[in-house]
Specification:
The chain has about 210 residues and is of the alpha+beta class. The chain is about 55% helix and about 15% strand. The strands form 3 sheets. A 3-stranded antiparallel sheet has the order 6-5-7. It has a two-stranded antiparallel sheet with strand order 1-2. The longest helix has 30 residues, at about 100-125.
Length: about 210
């Protein structure tokens, strides 16, 4: 008995449970979820890409501000010391802690900026209805692969815990870079909620044709 299977390009795998679904055109403003676990697989929103780009640009600017301005200032016994994110990274540059400095800088500064830059490069032309840039699919794929490794939110949680412990020993002044980092975390969460990977891959394929 011959069984006809749908083309592989028409199948969508749930990223949570790997259940295969047959892709279909959705009405505007609707979502399609996995039949097994309920994870959102597809969504259609005309302004989604424009909002993703707006949030990515905002987060990129805030990241630049976060590494440029003072992060924290401590005042203990009349001695005041202000530090930035770059100063915190460079504090580990000597001796055996040098690999830690590289890791911290890579995960909380370099990778988040790379991911935001890749998203802006890949999706920017789609907002204006232009043809996709060369390597747009590779850039979006890179942004997706970097997603678990961009750890700005982990950094903020760690700093917050440290502040709670230090607050009783010294006067702590939170600098603008701290709030910029916090803004990056919130914006990144909002941006990732808007990203429908299947719809973006489809849009990149159409824009490339």
């Amino acid at each position: 008995m011959k069984v006809d299977f749908p083309p592989l390009d028409d199948l969508v795998a749930c990223p949570q449970c790997d259940t295969l679904h047959l892709a279909a055109d959705l009405p505007e403003g609707t979502r399609a979820g996995c039949q097994r676990c309920g994870h959102v697989l597809m969504s259609t929103q005309k302004t989604a890409v424009a909002r993703i780009i707006s949030l990515a640009l905002t987060a990129f600017v805030l990241m630049i501000a976060a590494i440029s301005f003072p992060f924290l200032a401590l005042d203990a016994g009349g001695v005041r010391n202000a530090t930035s994110v770059i100063d915190a990274i460079l504090a580990f540059r000597n001796g055996l802690a040098f690999p830690l400095a590289i890791a911290v800088g890579f995960f909380i500064v370099v990778l988040p900026l790379m991911r935001l830059g890749a998203l802006i490069y890949a999706l920017g032309p789609l907002v204006a209805g232009r043809k996709a840039r060369p390597g747009a699919r590779a850039a979006f794929g890179l942004a997706e692969r970097l997603r678990p490794w961009s750890m700005a939110e982990i950094f903020i949680v760690g700093v917050t815990v440290a502040l709670i412990k230090v607050a009783g020993m010294a006067a702590v002044t939170i600098g603008p870079a701290f709030w910029a980092f916090a803004g990056v975390v919130v914006i990144t969460i909002l941006k990732d909620q808007l990203i429908c990977r299947y719809s973006i891959w489809e849009a990149l394929d159409k824009a490339r044709a």
